[in-house]
Every structure is written in C-alpha cells, then in structure tokens.
Amino acid sequence: MKKSSRFNDLIASGHLYLQNVSIDNVIFGYHNKELRVLLQRPEGIDLWALSGGYIKKTESIEDAARRIAEERTGLKNLFLKQFKAFGDPSRSSNKVFQEFEDQKENNWTLGYFVSLGFYTLTEFDQVRPTGDFYTEECKWWDIHHLPELVLDHRTIVDAALKALRLHIYHYPVGYELLCEKFTLPEIHALYETILGKSLDSRNFTKKL
Question: What pLDDT, in 10s, does the model give residues 98-137?
C-alpha cells in the first residue's frame, strides 16, 4: 500500500483514536560508550522526529507507548517509563506544518496535541530500526549530536535525559541497555555516559 494511501486511511479512521493527545517515545540505546536516541525522518522534509503515534480508544496510554516502541524496534517487553506531558499550544505551530494550514479543518492529525512523554530503554544490538509508513529514514543518533528536530521534540529529548538521570539509581537502567552478560567496568562506563561525569569506582560499586 502506498504511503499516501495509508495516511489517508489514518485520517479517515480518526474516530478510532483519542483526539488531541498523542505519545512521543524517546527510545534510548547504548553503543560504543555513546548514549543514542532512535529518530525518524518523515517523508519529504529535512527535520527528524521522535518515535510517536496516537492512542487507540481500546488501549491504555502505556499500551500505546509500548506498541509504538515495539513497532520501531522489533522488540517486546522493553523497559518503558512515562516522565512528563507537553502541552504548550505553540508546539503545533512548527514551520514544518505551515503548508498544511488550510487542511486543518479536515485533518485531525494537524491540530493542537498534548503529548505524553515516555522513554524506552533498549539493547542496541538487538534493535531493528523501523519507521512508520510516512518515514524515509529511521536510525540512531548520538545524544550529543542530534539533528534539527520537529516541533518541541528537542525539549522532549532533554526532559527524557533529565528523567533518566534521576531514575538511574532507582530502576534497572544498566541491565536494560547492556547485553545479558556484562562486566563491572562496562556498567561503570554506561553510568558515566548517562550521567555525563566521572564516578568513583568504589562508591559506584556500593550503590549497585
């Protein structure tokens, strides 16, 4: 099925989804001592976007976020955490959508959406990056070298990283981002990468 046809199908099936609320999922991976984010580039534009989607009326917000993560990574049972909601009305006035201004009355996806922010932790080597039906590219980016993002997605990434740093000693972050078997130096390097600072080895071992 052509992408344009599938997008028209989405517009026509608006009654199946919650209106004016969406999911933006910051999918984190770790590779070569770099924390990475999975991004996708929508068809026909030069900006990149987070893995996002809409919430079906038959699913919870957690189920929607989990479905989106599974569709983008090909993996199930991923660690997933809601961290914030984003609801500034100006978030929908991005220049990317200005050319569609005259279509807003007939296209429910172009209105003002409150976005529920989740972050997901994945094992990098197991992920098969897969964009949605109107995506031209889907790939990993180093958290410190992100491309220009649509809407307020950069703000969402920054908030997700802040939340991850707060949660790092309360949830099994390292066990979700590394392979099943790893060494103490490997998890030490992972925590230093996420926190962006050096950690004393002796104190770090006591906190694990």
Answer: 544 445 566 777 778 899 999 999 989 999 998 877 788 9
Distance separating alpha carbons of residues 201 and 203, to the nearest angstrom: 6
Residue 27, SS3?
strand
Q: Distance (Å, rounded) from C-alpha 121 to C-alpha 69?
A: 10
Q: DSSP class of residue 49?
A: B
Partner residues linked to 35 by β-bridges:
30
Please name the residue that has the structure tokens 């990149």: 48
Alpha-helical regions (H) of the chain: 3-12, 61-73, 153-167, 173-177, 184-195, 201-207
CA 119: distance to chain centroid? Answer: 6
How many C-beta atoms surround the C-beta of residue 155 within 10 A? 15
Does pTM top 0.90 for this prediction? Answer: no
